[in-house]
Specification:
This protein has 364 residues and is an alpha/beta fold. It contains twelve helices and twelve strands. The protein has two domains: 149 residues, Nucleotidyltransferase, domain 5 (2-Layer Sandwich), CATH 3.30.420.40; 167 residues, Nucleotidyltransferase, domain 5 (2-Layer Sandwich). It is 33% helix and 22% strand. Strand 1 and strand 2 form a beta hairpin. The radius of gyration is 19 Å and the shape is globular. 54% of the residues are buried. Bound molecules: adenosine-5'-triphosphate and the ligand CC(=O)N[C@H]1[C@@H]2OC[C@@H](O2)[C@@H](O)[C@@H]1O[C@H](C)C(=O)O. The site of adenosine-5'-triphosphate has 22 residues, from helix 6. Pfam families: AnmK. Its EC number is 2.7.1.170. Keywords: ATP-binding, Carbohydrate metabolism, Kinase, Nucleotide-binding, Transferase. It catalyses: 1,6-anhydro-N-acetyl-beta-muramate + ATP + H2O = N-acetyl-D-muramate 6-phosphate + ADP + H(+).
Length: 364
Amino acid sequence: MLKAGRVKALGAMSGTSLDGVDVALIETDGEQIFGFGATGYRPYSADERAVLRAALGKWPGDDLDRARTVVENAHVAALSTIEGAEIIGFHGQTLAHDPRGRGTHQLGDGAVLAQQLGLPVVWDFRSADVRLGGEGAPLAPFFHHACARYIGATEPVSFLNLGGVGNLTWIDPRHTRPEEPGALLAFDTGPANAPINDLVQKRLGLDCDHDGALARRGRVENGALELFLDDPWFYRMPPKSLDRDAFSDMIGLVCELSDADAAATLTAMAAAAVFRGIEHCPSPPARVLVTGGGRRNPVMMQMLGAALDCPVLPVEDVGLDGDMLEAQAFAYLAVRVARGLPTSCTATTGVRAAVGGGEISRPR
Ligand SMILES: Nc1ncnc2c1ncn2[C@@H]1O[C@H](COP(=O)(O)OP(=O)(O)OP(=O)(O)O)[C@@H](O)[C@H]1O
Ligand SMILES: CC(=O)N[C@H]1[C@@H]2OC[C@@H](O2)[C@@H](O)[C@@H]1O[C@H](C)C(=O)O
């Protein structure tokens, strides 16, 4: 049993951009955040990344031995650099996500980590939600609610994560519990950095359009942008979630364009997807707080700022760490699971009733 009151929880996240493992310590009772602690990052080597990339789209039962070893070893290496944790939240590496079909698949065995690290590990956060009819994603929204209260927000605010995929959480912080009706609305907005990374990787051998350098020199092709926004995804009501590669053929929309115009157009698509998403919110947020790697792309941030009617700010402006928010989220959610508190609800994943997702493995 986890001791009552505040605990130090360590979270680990390996996101859809396959860059590496983020780890972060937080102090929480599963409801309130009391403070943030040490953080760490363990990048995947080029070889490891290639193994993971080759495993994308695979399901349990497929041959995943090499990829599993990469994920588990990188997590043990990252997590063992941080001392003082009483419990670990381990997200794993999403390989496939098809909540209305085959389910959702995060690679990595929490029991192996518990054994190697000597601590209880909460993992497989998404499956229970999917079994109850939910999207299984996004799961950070309950943590975003706690963050909104931690920063003292008093009116509706949104958190926007710009990772490989984008996801948005609208929060009314006047509700004390995240599962209360009216407290939250959350959903994936659409593709964010993944198509830009794929484009510059394929054409130029680069990892990303660093600082938006390429997009800054390009011109947005409005015809391609309009075709993109015609996708039925944008007319679907939230909650809704995406697989990393769900929009991978959008690169086809920019294949005739120059490198700079293609990058500018894909960046505009990521921003327009957010703009469309905000229209689903119950009321306009007073500010949009941006987390994830996309907040470092000034072109994407400028496009968002121009399209939205409220300040669009990196989460650092309110004292949070935009590189670590997802790792912190899974630390927070681990404590909620251990305490029997829900981690998602109808407004965040469409699940039939609020549910606590996650399996707990203890060292033998
Ligand atoms: N300086 C920068 N300029 C432009 N883009 C950047 C910069 N820094 C990071 N990025 C983009 O952010 C991406 C990483 O974002 P992040 O770490 O939030 O993704 P993730 O957590 O793997 O994804 P997800 O949240 O979808 O699981 C990089 O792959 C890159 O595309
Ligand atoms: C299935 C899956 O891993 N989804 C990720 C992905 O990356 C961003 C977006 O799509 C979000 O829905 C989710 O991650 C964050 C951490 C979440 O669950 O909130």
